[in-house]
Amino acid sequence: MKATSIRARLLLSLLPLFLLAVAVVGTVTYRYVLHESHALFDYHLEQMALSLRDQGEVPAPPVPPEERQQFDFVVQIWNADGSKVYISQTRSRARLPDRAMLGFADVVTEGERWRVYSLLARGRVIQIGQPYLVRERIAAAAALRSLTPLLVIAPMVALAIWWLVGLALEPVVRVTRELRRRDARRLDPVPDEGLPAEIEPMVRQLNGLLDRLRHAFEAQRAFVADAAHELRTPLAALKLQAGLLGRARDDQARSEALQALRSGIDRATHLIDQLLTLARSEPEAVASPEPADLAAIAREAASELRAIAESQGVRLELRAPGALPLTGEPEALHGLVRNLVDNAIRHTPRGSRVEITLAVDGGEVALTVDDEGPGIPPEDRERVFDRFFSRTSGDRGGSGLGLAIVRAIVERHGGSIALGDSPRGGLRVSVRLPAAGAPAPAQSPARPS
């Protein structure tokens, strides 16, 4: 369906309404002037009759033919005995009836309609008549002349409406021109000064959307640049290890080079998996939330990582109630728990424990992971959420993306995350998410890293 402009809609609604108003006003004015003209003609008939009541014998004066044709009234005067005293000479040959109805009356004589006024004075009947055709012609001409100003002003008002509608919509046209000049490289806010109250909220929301898009594009560019930088090193290492494998002279050297190549492939695969997980976990990613059980998700993630923990001499302990319902994305929540536990296992020394605790606190679900590792100094606790940031101590080949992924998932679910000191001497990661049925707080746009 073709879109109709606001200007066209306003003009299509205002101009017909204006024309209808002009037609109604013109019709009412025309009929009013006609009525007033007939009332004025009746007044003239009455005044002429009254002017003749005091006259004596009124002889019919000779009237030139040219003047006779300009006189549209018929005057008849007769005595009580019926004898004619006076009959005017007019261009019409019609004669009024000899019997008169006092006052105003409509009379048809010889096929012509007349307006007649009769007066009885001093034993004489005075009768004055005027053809309706003459009255209506003069009245119609007067009525049409009264409509002349309206017919002149109406087009001017229509043009004024067209101009005022365009002037009122100029801010919309200005915003449209401004947006038409934009592309993906221009996401700065649209000027909102001097906008009408009806479109100012829309422009502000549009500027908010542009701001979020700008942050998302900046984050995407930073992500691509960081990913390219981080992938360059493992790919170069794989190339070097493949070269060493090709130059191996005996089985032992070949076996060691093959093992190094497999380890490099595993690290590159882990890094790529983390990059894809981070991309899917960004707050701007589109997904449909559904009912989930965080306790069941945590048990599944702990079961998957238990073998890795045992291979590194770390014991996992999970404390969770029967069920912790919330609304979210089960796959993303699984990645959240898995990354937190995997990060704790990587930084916990052999012979120690990693504790996973889940509980309900008010309208939120609380997830806490404690380890016995070296912890993180307070000055670095914000930086560890940056992509590809890895602290040297305790690093066991991590990609530096685990906590960045966790924060992205938490923000996407409207929750919060905090780092602190664990009672076990290491790091405590505390995550709080809205429970099922609790309103999630508004999410802020992701910050570029």
Automatic annotation (TrEMBL):
Catalytic activity: ATP + protein L-histidine = ADP + protein N-phospho-L-histidine
Domain of life according to the entry: Bacteria
Membrane topology per record: Multi-pass membrane protein
TM region(s), chain numbering: 150-173
Listed Pfam families: HATPase_c, HisKA
Histidine kinase domain boundaries: 226-437
Keyword Transferase appears in the UniProt entry: yes
HAMP domain: residues covered: 166-218
Keywords, in A-Z order: ATP-binding, Kinase, Membrane, Nucleotide-binding, Phosphoprotein, Transferase, Transmembrane, Transmembrane helix, Two-component regulatory system
EC nos: 2.7.13.3
Record's subcellular location: Membrane
Cellular component terms (Gene Ontology): plasma membrane
Gene Ontology terms for molecular function: ATP binding; phosphorelay sensor kinase activity
InterPro entries attached to this UniProt entry: HAMP_dom (IPR003660), HATPase_C_sf (IPR036890), HATPase_dom (IPR003594), His_kinase_dom (IPR005467), HisK_dim/P_dom (IPR003661), HisK_dim/P_sf (IPR036097), Sig_transdc_His_kin-like_C (IPR004358), TCS_sensor_his_kinase (IPR050428)
PANTHER family, alphabetized: SENSOR HISTIDINE KINASE YKOH (PTHR45436), SENSOR PROTEIN QSEC (PTHR45436:SF14)
Record's protein name: histidine kinase
Species annotation: Zeimonas arvi
